[in-house]
Amino acid sequence: MVNKMYLDKAEVLIEALPYIRRFNRKVIIVKYGGSAMVDEELKRNVIKDVVLLKLVGFKPIIVHGGGKEISRWVGKVGMEPKFINGLRVTDEATMEVAEMVLNKVNKELVTMIESLGVKAIGISGKDGALLHVQKKLSDGQDIGFVGDIDAVEPGMLWKLLENDFLPVVCPVGFDDDFNTYNINADDAACAIAKAMNAEKLAFLTDIEGVYRDYSDADSLISELHISEARQLIADGNVGGGMIPKLQNCIDAIENGVSRVHILDGRIPHCLLLEIFTNKGIGTAILNESEEKFYHEGK
């Protein structure tokens, strides 16, 4: 008799089949950040997930952060990291360090992808004029070379996808005067997803997803429409750090992205579990016209 373990593996593959069929050849943006970028084992698991998505016919693009690594290197060179309203103050010297660190992280990810047998190319938002920015202010305060994206030119990303590459993007761009700016990676991922009408946008974070009541671990929401997301914000049921992320999700969906996923990157293979299983493990936010795959209580 066949071992149950092997039958279970077959069941997992069968469960994944409708999702593979539905999202085959569709663009998926993966915003990669948080603890999953620091822990080497988690990092490799995330990259394996993205490589698998590529090999089964999806068109993934990674947009990565690097805030923790930037802070570490700023400290290494004897500078003190400064933040205003949670945003890094980025003077010229800090921007120089940030760009070097982000490019280092970028090429490490490219190397890892290539080692798994998939062609990858690492770029920044400066390449091909991908990300054009204006100076970002924080409640009217100048925080240096931190940019708000005002235009995306995705032509190069389409070319890379057409030529079977997996693009890896670090969030740096420039303004009209070609000054270099650091960009929030969530904002960069959202802007690229909108510009490419991505089918999915997945945020890998250090939280499990969206809760109806953050103090209740059993209140994790598997799926919600954008009207429900707006209501959660209006009711004050989500923490301050989740509000801009949810607003990014709503913005992306209103601009053509079908589904946005908020996942805990600390869980091994969270991307595969969310995309290829009926219930998933994080929170999926979807347009009003999209049908929920998983109905809570059933």
From TrEMBL:
<dbReference type="InterPro" id="IPR037528">
    <property type="entry name" value="ArgB"/>
</dbReference>
<dbReference type="GO" id="GO:0003991">
    <property type="term" value="F:acetylglutamate kinase activity"/>
</dbReference>
<keyword id="KW-0547">Nucleotide-binding</keyword>
<comment type="similarity">
    <text>Belongs to the acetylglutamate kinase family. ArgB subfamily.</text>
</comment>
<feature type="binding site">
    <location>
        <begin position="66"/>
        <end position="67"/>
    </location>
    <ligand>
        <name>substrate</name>
    </ligand>
</feature>
<comment type="pathway">
    <text>Amino-acid biosynthesis; L-arginine biosynthesis; N(2)-acetyl-L-ornithine from L-glutamate: step 2/4.</text>
</comment>
<feature type="binding site">
    <location>
        <position position="182"/>
    </location>
    <ligand>
        <name>substrate</name>
    </ligand>
</feature>
<dbReference type="InterPro" id="IPR001048">
    <property type="entry name" value="Asp/Glu/Uridylate_kinase"/>
</dbReference>
<comment type="function">
    <text>Catalyzes the ATP-dependent phosphorylation of N-acetyl-L-glutamate.</text>
</comment>
<dbReference type="InterPro" id="IPR036393">
    <property type="entry name" value="AceGlu_kinase-like_sf"/>
</dbReference>
<keyword id="KW-0055">Arginine biosynthesis</keyword>
<feature type="site" description="Transition state stabilizer">
    <location>
        <position position="31"/>
    </location>
</feature>
<dbReference type="GO" id="GO:0005737">
    <property type="term" value="C:cytoplasm"/>
</dbReference>
<feature type="domain" description="Aspartate/glutamate/uridylate kinase">
    <location>
        <begin position="26"/>
        <end position="264"/>
    </location>
</feature>
<keyword id="KW-0963">Cytoplasm</keyword>
<dbReference type="Pfam" id="PF00696">
    <property type="entry name" value="AA_kinase"/>
</dbReference>
<dbReference type="InterPro" id="IPR001057">
    <property type="entry name" value="Glu/AcGlu_kinase"/>
</dbReference>
<keyword id="KW-0418">Kinase</keyword>
<keyword id="KW-0067">ATP-binding</keyword>
<dbReference type="InterPro" id="IPR004662">
    <property type="entry name" value="AcgluKinase_fam"/>
</dbReference>
<dbReference type="GO" id="GO:0005524">
    <property type="term" value="F:ATP binding"/>
</dbReference>
<protein>
    <recommendedName>
        <fullName>Acetylglutamate kinase</fullName>
        <ecNumber>2.7.2.8</ecNumber>
    </recommendedName>
</protein>
<feature type="site" description="Transition state stabilizer">
    <location>
        <position position="245"/>
    </location>
</feature>
<feature type="binding site">
    <location>
        <position position="88"/>
    </location>
    <ligand>
        <name>substrate</name>
    </ligand>
</feature>
<keyword id="KW-0028">Amino-acid biosynthesis</keyword>
<dbReference type="InterPro" id="IPR041727">
    <property type="entry name" value="NAGK-C"/>
</dbReference>
<keyword id="KW-0808">Transferase</keyword>
<dbReference type="GO" id="GO:0042450">
    <property type="term" value="P:L-arginine biosynthetic process via ornithine"/>
</dbReference>
